[in-house]
Backbone:
């Protein structure tokens, strides 16, 4: 099955009725898409009440891709707010049972930063991460090109297979060592993740003016580019059962429209989505 969705549910205005409270957005999001990436878990370990609400707000077959806490992937600046790395991983895992019990956890995404390059120390840390996560399905996304340089590419893929990492395949600008190529190789027979970051070369390179985070994912895929991915999916479907396909190009609000366009291009029909709400009346 191909699950098409977005990274996060808060910033997609085209999906929601006017003045919809933020606490109701996931419920309405689930009327459009069968999966979502949870970004809030990257910034903080979430309280159980939040997780249980998200589970209750979504249909039975809805799937969450939970982003690993930033301290687990080396994004945190300064000291982590835990006595040890093992305690940090334990706290993160304690957050997951509501997803697991509801059979709504697709995977945990470990997205590593651009300075996490291919060297022994980092390979050892990936093994540590996988050990700490027990049997929880985990996806691995690199941001440093060295992992897929010709002399390491096959070794990287074989390592991911051996360690049971799900490959997070990227579509992103090719701008040197701080980006990775699109590698159409699955490392898990059950699940594969694809994340569409856009192709904004200028934004990816951190422009001298403005906040680069606001423009990095400012990109709208055209029909020809989406058709490329229709062909790419045919390749991936030969290697894996389920593909989770997330659009992250939302600096300008394009992700939701591109995701709907892609669903139409693939002629996908999703059963069991949440009921669509109709905003028939607006009152001041």
Residues:
């Amino acid at each position: 099955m191909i699950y098409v969705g977005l990274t996060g549910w808060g910033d997609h205005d085209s999906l929601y009725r006017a003045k919809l409270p933020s606490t109701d957005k996931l419920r309405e999001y689930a009327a459009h898409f069968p999966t979502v990436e949870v970004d809030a878990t990257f910034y903080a370990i979430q309280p159980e009440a939040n997780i249980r609400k998200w589970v209750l707000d979504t249909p039975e077959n809805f799937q969450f891709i939970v982003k690993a806490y930033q301290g687990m992937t080396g994004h945190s600046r300064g000291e982590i707010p835990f006595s040890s790395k093992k305690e940090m991983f334990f706290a993160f895992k304690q957050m997951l049972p509501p997803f697991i019990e509801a059979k709504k956890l697709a995977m945990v995404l470990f997205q590593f930063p651009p300075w996490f390059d291919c060297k022994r120390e980092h390979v050892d840390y990936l093994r540590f991460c996988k050990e700490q996560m027990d049997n929880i399905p985990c996806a691995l996304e690199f941001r440093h090109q060295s992992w897929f340089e010709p002399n390491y590419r096959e070794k990287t893929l074989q390592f991911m297979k051996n360690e049971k990492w799900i490959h997070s395949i990227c579509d992103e600008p090719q701008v040197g060592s701080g980006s990775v190529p699109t590698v159409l190789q699955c490392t898990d027979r059950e699940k594969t993740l694809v994340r569409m970051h856009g192709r904004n070369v200028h934004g990816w390179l951190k422009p001298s003016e403005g906040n680069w985070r606001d423009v990095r994912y400012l990109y709208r895929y055209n029909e020809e580019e989406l058709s490329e991915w229709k062909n790419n999916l045919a390749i991936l479907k030969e290697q894996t059962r389920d593909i989770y396909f997330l659009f992250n190009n939302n600096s300008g609000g394009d992700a939701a429209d591109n995701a709907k366009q892609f669903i139409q291009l693939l002629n996908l029909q999703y059963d069991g989505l949440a009921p669509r709400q109709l905003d028939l009346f607006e009152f001041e």
About this structure: The chain has a mean pLDDT of 92. Residues 214 and 251 are 6 Å apart (CA to CA). The first strand starts at residue 2 and ends at 7. The two ends are 43 Å apart (CA to CA).
